[in-house]
Amino acid sequence: MTTNSGGKKQCVTCNKSGGILTCDGCQKTFCGKHVIEHRQELAAKLDNIMQEHDLLQQEIEQPSARKNSLLQKIDRWEKDSILKIQIAAESARRSLLDLLDQAKGPLSKIGDFSEHDLDRWKKQLKDLELQVTFPPAAKLVPDKNNPIYLMQLHIDESLNNNSPNRKDTSSNQPNSTLQERFLQSLGPVRFEEGGFVARHTSPVSDYAYVRGRLLYLRGSHTIRFRLEKCKQPYYIFFGCMASKISLQEDAFRLPSAVGWFGSNQAYEQGRCSRSCKKTDFNSNKIQPNDVLQLTLDCNQMEVRLYHERMKSTCVLGVDPKLTPFPWQLLMVLCNPGDSVRILPNS
After folding, report:
1. DSSP label at 65?
2. 52-61, 116-125, 202-211: which range is least confident on average?
3. Strand intervals (E) in 216-311
4. Which of 25, 65, 272, 341 has the most C-beta neighbours closer than 10 Å?
5. How far apart are CA 2 and CA 17, in angstroms?
6. pLDDT (0 to 100) of residue 61
7. Average pLDDT, stretch 83-104?
8. In terms of pLDDT, which residue wins out, 52 or 149?
């Protein structure tokens, strides 16, 4: 701030003392003319900020690989995988064509012939046709030394702990992952609250099949459910199935499904057991408002069902040959009005 010999404030732009105004932001003084120019400069800076905001908002709503490094990596992985598949397919195709070329033989000129010659040539043509259609010496064998790996997105919450607006939740979220929700359905069921609640909608007992939105390939993942409405006797299935198998009727009876149902039933890849002693599962103890924890342990090849009120755990093994990765949550409702809520990750 400058002042003249009389102690009056002067404009920082023209050093004149007439019509002096002070900016509350920068605390500089301006005359009437230059205070307008100062406001115009501030307005121009605000316009630039708004433009940057609009561009960032557009990038958030419609992310582009040009700016997002993860999208760039995914696109590059996709192109590399496609190229590897094309190279492998072309190599296998050429090898097969070379094998078929070996079956070609020079055609001899036909001179005198009899019925025996015709029968012999006809048989040779049949044999050649089989070799071309189903080459006996060739078969496709997967090369396990050159796999094309699946890519998954994992969120590391610890990277966000330094944010000034973020609360420290690392102590109560040891296995922080993406939140599971109900996504796919078959039968009389309605999803509510963004897929966190599944409600049976039929006035009569009928199977309603539900799958989650997440795929489980490795690690151990726990999903907590509250039985908000649970008609007695209890009849709800909790378990998993291979994601590559389409959701269908009697999905819990498929060889690719594992889990627990009402009537003390435990399903293991198409086999059903009703023995409480064998499976440690007693559905008669499950009541409305109970909380159940379903753990999909890809590392140990097993699923676990934990009853929080009874503090009891049931375990079923999973055969990866019958239930290949990735796994997917499978739930089946049966009783009218039954309602299940997925609780937030803990």
Report:
1. T
2. 52-61
3. 220-229, 237-242, 257-260, 266-268, 271-273, 291-297, 302-307
4. 341
5. 10
6. 65
7. 72
8. 52
Q: Which residue has the tokens 């932001």?
A: 25
In terms of DSSP H, where are the helices of the chain?
Answer: 32-61, 69-102, 115-133, 276-279
Compute CA distances 39 → 15, 24, 27, 231, 315, whole Å: 18, 12, 13, 68, 70
Contact predicate 197/175, CB 8 Å = no
Neighbours of 298 (CB within 10 A): 19
Confirm if 227 and 340 have CB atoms less than 8 A apart: yes
Assess contact for 257 and 240: CB atoms under 8 A: yes
CA distance 31 to 25: 16
3-state SS track over 127-153? HHHHHHHCCCCCCCCCCCCCCCCCCCC
Cβ distance 336 to 200 under 8 Å? yes
- Which residue carries 């690690």 as its tokens? 219
Distance in angstroms between the alpha carbons of the first and the last residue of the chain: 57
pLDDT one-digit tens code per residue, 166-198: 443 333 333 334 789 999 999 999 999 989 999
| Both tokens assigned to 139 | 């078969």
Using a pLDDT cut of 70, give the percent of the chain over it: 74
Say whether 237 sits in a helix, a strand or coil: strand
State the pLDDT at residue 333: 97
Residue 210's H or E segment, with its range, is strand 208-212
Q: What percent of the chain has pLDDT over 90?
A: 39
Q: Mean pLDDT, to the nearest integer, of 82-94?
A: 76
Distance of CA 221 to the CA centre of its chain: 13
Least confident of 129-138, 211-220, 270-279: 129-138
Q: How many residues does the chain have?
A: 346
Distance, in Å, from the CA atom of 218 to the CA atom of 297, rounded to the nearest integer, reads: 8
pLDDT number for residue 87: 74
Give CA 309 to chain center in angstroms: 31
Pick from 270, 248, 251, 267: nearest CA to 259:
267
Residues 245, 253: Cα–Cα separation, whole Å: 12
